[in-house]
Amino acid sequence: MNAAYKDAIADLPPLRDVIRDGGLAATKALGQNFLLDLNLTSSIARLNGDLDGLDAVEIGPGPGGLTRALLLANAETVHAIEYDARAVDVLQPLIEAANGHLQVHQGDALELDALSLGREGRRVVIANLPYNVASPILINLLRGIHARGDQAAQFMLLMFQKEVADRIVAAPHSKIYGRLSVMVQWLCKTKSMKVLPPSAFSPQPKIHSAVVRFLPIARKDQVSFDTMEKLLAAAFNQRRKMLRQSLKDYVMYFEAANIDGTLRAEDVPVDDYVRLAQVIEAAS
Q1: Which of 269, 230, 267 is nearest to 249 (CA)?
Q2: pTM
Q3: Could you tell me the domains of the chain?
Q4: Alpha carbon distance 187, 45 (integer Å)
Q5: What single DSSP character describes residue 189?
Q6: Whole-angstrom Cα distance, residue 78 to residue 76?
Q7: Which of 55, 87, 206, 283 lies 20 to 30 Å from 242, alpha-carbon distance?
Q8: Strands, DSSP E only, in 129-225?
Q9: What is the rounded distance in angstroms from the CA atom of residue 217 to the CA atom of residue 96?
Q10: What pLDDT, in 10s, does the model give residues 195-230?
C-alpha cells in the first residue's frame, strides 16, 4: 500500500468519534468488545510479521480499529465479515480511504465461508472474534482447513477469552485439554502470542483475552471431520471415565489402534485419537 492510502487512513476520525457518531455502542448480545488503541491493534496485526502482499480476512471488524491496522501493515486486500449493519455503515469512510483494498461482507460468519475470501496461498485470517460465537467460528474455520489443507491460510491470528485460548493450546494430561484442544491441534500448530487485559477493550470485559496463532498442518491422514467430532464428543462428554467406558461403542477398535482403554480422555495425545479414527473408518 502506498503512502497516499496510509495518509488517507491516518486522517480518519478517532475510533471513539466513529462509535459515537455512528451510534455503534457495543452490544453484549453480539459479543462486542472493541479495540480502540491503534498502537495495540498495530502490534496484533504484525504479530506474525508484515502482511505485504497477503489477503487478510477479518471477522467482526466493528468500528474498524484492527481493520485499519491490517491495511497499514500492507495487506494487499482486507476482507471484513461483519454481521452488525451499524458497523457496516460506519466502515464506509474506511472503505473509501482504502481505495479498493478493503471489502466488507455483511453476513453471519457462522454461515459464510471465510476461507473462500482472498487468494489461495496468500490468505491469512486475523480477527478479534465476538466472544459469544468465538468457538463455533473457530470450528467452522477448522472445517475449512480440513477441506482445503494447509493452503487454506498461511496463518491465523485469532483473539479469544483467555480461558478459551488456554484450552486451545492445552497439552494432554491437563484438566483443560479437551475436544477443542484435539480438534485444533489435529489441524494446526498453535501458540499463544499475546495476552490483553480487560482495560484494552471498550467496554471492558471481566476477563483477560489472548491472541492465538494457528499454522495449518499438511496432514497425511484421510480422517473425516465428522468422525473426529463424534469420537471426541463421546470421549470428553464423560472425561472422568476410562476410555473403555466413555468410548464403549469403539472398544473393539482399541487393540488395532493401540489404545489403552484404562486411560481417561484427557491423557490421550492427538495422534492417538487420529489413529483410532482411522481404524474406525477403515472398518466402516
Answers
A1: 230
A2: 0.94
A3: 3-216 (3.40.50.150), 225-283 (1.10.8.100)
A4: 23
A5: E
A6: 7
A7: 283
A8: 155-161, 188-196, 201-202, 209-216
A9: 37
A10: 999 999 888 888 999 999 999 999 889 999 999 999
